């Protein structure tokens, strides 16, 4: 007698056996996953409570003074992004470590940067009263009108700098391990496989990690330049920041990082979803091509936030509109459609985790459509400064990323407990999140279409009904999250006795590889030497005198001096690595150097620091040579990351100085 379909599903094991599965997670992988996921979800919950309070204030259900509303708005925006980022950083690390060598210690460095940065932002906003919004557009932070003190401004920017540095460290780790493991940047992106030169391709999560890391490093370099520029202006009110330059870099950094959160999640989904479908998510040529396109689109879509700026070059606006629209194609075809086909026809195990994984695709798709509509120039003129914008990004962050964040926690919990959450919970939690979430964002979509402005503590008369509906939806989401957390705690308490049985022994480390330095050929050394000679011209007395005529030229001269030292360090360290092969790679001092040295270089470009030295020729000369030494340290340390990663780190460190010179005067 044949079993019924229901009986077949009920007989499915807790984990589908897949040929590529590595077995249970190790102790290190489980701990890192829980650290990132637990911290991120906790931060997410606190920021959610602040968001609900603000929504209810707009609905006149509670009263929040305007000054406090904008403090909470600033903290909510920054805190939500950090919380979501932490969870998804942990999720991608968790699924990537079984196939490439990843360091838990280096992840903890990145984790520490994000957490300490978030705490400083909290202090700046709640204690210091800083209230510009997380986008901190210049010159608003420097005109508080008694709303906050200078120390609060400085604390906020130091916090944002640490957040950016933490993510930069994480991206360096991803980029270094994938490019070194798969034979360089092209190999890690699957280009030889795409061109038919190789039948082997990196797994999907490795390709995703490479794209995320490269875009993340580029965005973090831009973020470092603008945040340090704002710190310089906080230290010295004589610093002049070009407002359009500042807005471009701010949105390039912020928009790119916000986008990358969901791509981090997609990389994790490539491994986690097949565990419930029983089918492997394999690398295909469309997938590799789609991620190549994403590499370009993510980095160029940000300027649809600047359509209203008449001084923005027209070509940039059209590039942004094209990239924003085209970015939806690889997402829809490569990840969402493929994910649905992976589930379709499979014996998909519908648990709490797998249901949330499935529903996250819906939030990504709907939020993505809302974003594409807003990026169309004619539509943007009507919708961009309205509630449509928070509607679309809350759709893919709340109903996409948060769904996947909770799904990741549920996945860890159900595996640790050896059983799924109760069926009624697996129905009730998603139902509350979906009904409440779409009521919440739907009210914003409707109000935005009517022209209700965003970032306002009070909405126009007659529109409070939308705020009430949104508040009810937010409370339903909160109820779903609370039920989820209660269930998670209960399952974890039940899992305490069997954790040792479900943990795999630590994986054997990969064989130590000979480090391939960034420069390996005589032609390469000739190019590095020639560029160093060109940069050395900035130290000539005539060049120094010319640079004194404007702050921008002075900063450009400093950037050239930093590049000089970097080129010398890169060349000499590469030659030594060829003469005496170096095994291994990243060390703590190299990580610290490539993050800290460029930041120090930008900080000393504050006129209040270098102006007093100009009357003392020996000290002035020593100052310039100090910048050369900072470059030397950066170039020397970059070699420790291998060819692709070392070149990328060095180029981006020099680019920070050049970008700074392009927008900071005084």
Overview of this protein structure:
It is a single chain. By secondary structure, the protein is mostly helical. The chain has three domains: 92-326, Cytochrome c oxidase-like, subunit I domain (Cytochrome C Oxidase, Chain A); 349-504, no CATH class; 522-665, no CATH class. The chain is 72% helix and 1% strand. The protein contains 26 helices and two strands. It has helices at 5-10, 27-58, 66-96, 104-127, 150-181, 185-188, 191-194, 204-235, 243-272, 274-277, 285-300, 314-326, 328-343, 352-375, 377-383, 388-417, 423-449, 464-495, 499-502, 522-536, 541-547, 551-579, 588-603, 607-610, 617-638, 643-663, and strands spanning 240-241, 664-665. A two-stranded antiparallel ribbon has the order 1-2. The protein starts with a helix and ends with a strand.
Task: Name the descriptors.
disordered N terminus; mainly alpha; Cytochrome C Oxidase, Chain A; 1% strand; 666 residues; 72% helix; 2 strands
A few lines on this structure:
The protein is mostly helical and 666 residues long. The chain is built from 26 helices and two strands. The radius of gyration is 25 Å and the shape is globular.
């Amino acid at each position: 007698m044949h079993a019924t379909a229901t009986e077949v599903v009920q007989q499915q094991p807790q984990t589908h056996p897949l040929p590529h599965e590595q077995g249970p997670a190790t102790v290190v992988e489980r701990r890192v996953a829980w650290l990132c996921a637990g911290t991120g979800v906790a931060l997410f919950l606190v920021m959610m409570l602040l968001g609900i309070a603000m929504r209810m204030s707009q609905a006149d259900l509670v009263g929040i003074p305007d000054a406090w509303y904008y403090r909470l708005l600033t903290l909510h925006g920054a805190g939500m992004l950090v919380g979501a980022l932490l969870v998804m950083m942990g999720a991608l690390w968790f699924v990537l470590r079984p196939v490439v060598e990843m360091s838990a210690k280096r992840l903890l460095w990145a984790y520490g940067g994000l957490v300490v940065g978030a705490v400083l932002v909290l202090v700046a906003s709640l204690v210091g009263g800083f209230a510009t919004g997380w986008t901190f557009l210049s010159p608003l932070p420097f005109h508080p009108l008694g709303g906050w003190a200078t120390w609060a401004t400085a604390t906020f920017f130091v916090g944002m700098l640490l957040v950016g540095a933490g993510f930069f460290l994480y991206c360096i780790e991803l980029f270094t391990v994938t490019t070194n493991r798969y034979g360089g940047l092209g190999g890690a992106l699957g280009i030889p496989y795409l061109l038919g030169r190789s039948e082997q391709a990196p797994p999907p999560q490795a390709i995703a990690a490479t794209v995320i890391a490269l875009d993340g490093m580029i965005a973090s370099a831009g973020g470092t330049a603008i945040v340090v520029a704002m710190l310089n202006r906080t230290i010295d009110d004589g610093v002049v920041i070009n407002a359009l330059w500042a807005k471009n870099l701010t949105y390039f950094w912020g928009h790119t990082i916000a986008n990358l959160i969901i791509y981090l999640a997609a990389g994790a989904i490539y491994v986690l979803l097949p565990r419930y479908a029983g089918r492997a998510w394999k690398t295909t040529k469309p997938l590799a091509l789609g991620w190549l396109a994403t590499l370009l689109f993510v980095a160029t879509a940000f300027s649809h936030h600047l359509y209203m700026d008449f001084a923005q070059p027209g070509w940039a606006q059209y590039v942004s509109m094209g990239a924003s629209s085209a970015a939806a194609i690889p997402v829809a075809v490569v990840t969402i459609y493929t994910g649905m086909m992976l589930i379709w026809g499979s014996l998909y195990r519908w648990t709490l985790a797998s249901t949330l994984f499935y529903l996250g695709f819906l939030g990504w798709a709907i939020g993505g459509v809302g974003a594409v509509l807003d990026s169309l120039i004619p539509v943007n003129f009507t919708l961009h400064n309205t509630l449509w914008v928070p509607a679309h990004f809350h759709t893919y962050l709340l109903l996409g990323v948060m769904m996947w964040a909770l799904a990741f926690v549920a996945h860890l919990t159900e595996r640790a407990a050896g059983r799924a959450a109760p069926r009624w919970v697996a129905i009730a939690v998603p139902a509350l999140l979906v009904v409440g979430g779409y009521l919440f964002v739907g009210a914003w979509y409707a109000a935005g279409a009517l022209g209700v402005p965003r970032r306002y503590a009070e909405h126009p008369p007659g529109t409070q009904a939308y705020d009430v509906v949104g508040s009810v939806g937010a409370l339903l989401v909160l109820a779903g999250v609370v039920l989820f957390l209660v269930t998670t705690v209960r399952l974890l308490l039940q899992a305490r006795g069997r954790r040792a049985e479900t943990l795999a022994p630590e994986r054997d480390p990969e064989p130590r590889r000979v480090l391939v330095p960034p420069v390996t050929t005589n032609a390469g050394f000739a190019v590095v030497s020639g560029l160093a000679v060109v940069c050395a011209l900035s130290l000539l007395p005539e060049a120094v005198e010319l640079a004194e005529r404007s702050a921008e030229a002075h900063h450009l001269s400093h950037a050239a001096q930093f590049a000089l030292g970097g080129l010398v360090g890169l060349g000499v360290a590469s030659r030594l690595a060829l003469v005496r092969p170096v095994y291994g790679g990243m060390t703590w001092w190299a990580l610290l150097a490539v993050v800290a040295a460029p930041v120090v270089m930008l900080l000393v470009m504050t006129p209040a620091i270098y102006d007093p030295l100009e009357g003392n020729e020996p000290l002035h000369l020593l100052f310039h040579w100090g910048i050369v030494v900072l470059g030397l340290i950066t170039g020397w340390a970059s070699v420790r990351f291998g060819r692709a990663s070392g070149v990328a780190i060095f180029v981006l460190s020099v680019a920070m100085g050049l970008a700074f010179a392009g927008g900071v005067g005084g």
